Amino acid sequence: MILIDTSVLIDFFKGAQNAAATKLHATLSQKMHIGITSGIFQELLQGAKNAKEFNLLKRYLETQHFYHPLHAVESYAEAAKIYMACRKKGITLRSTADCLIARIAIEHDLLLLHNDADFVAMAAVIDLKFF
């Protein structure tokens, strides 16, 4: 099972030609099991250019499988620990939201498909698996 990050979906929707977007295209054509998080859903919607694009994205994304934190409070604490562990190793992450995405991937034993340097940096500190 694969968790698709915002970075890949943005590239995919824009028709970008990069490794991550190509992997997503192949994944979709092979009908592999993929999903997103509520945070990824929000990030994509808030990037909409207008109400029409917002509604189109919302209708499409609502059909996807959603992965949620397994624990209402502890999952967020564990995401904060990811940020702290990275900072302790001298790694400054640009997005704390990425820490929660990483935590959800770990909790559900998902492969993460991304195009984001923060996840590469995190993988040097935590056990994050990529697709």
Structure notes:
The protein has 131 residues and is α/β, with parallel strands linked by helices. Helices cover 56% and strands 10% of the residues. The protein is built from seven helices and four strands. It has a four-stranded parallel β-sheet with strand order 3-2-1-4, with helices on both faces. α3 packs antiparallel against α4 and α5 (74-88) crosses α6. The radius of gyration is 15 Å and the shape is globular.
**Radius of gyration in whole Å, from Cα?**
15 Å
Order of helices and strands: EHHEHHEHHEH
Low-confidence spans: pLDDT under 50, at least 5 residues? none
Distance linking N and C termini = 9 Å
How is the main sheet built?
4 strands, parallel
- Helices, by number, come to 7
Q: If strands are numbered along the chain, what order do they take across the biggest sheet?
A: 3-2-1-4
Note the beta-strand portion: 5-15%
Give the number of DSSP strands. Answer: 4
Helical residues, percent = 55-70%
Overall form:
globular
Mean pLDDT score: 97
Q: Which structural class do you get from the secondary structure elements?
A: alpha/beta
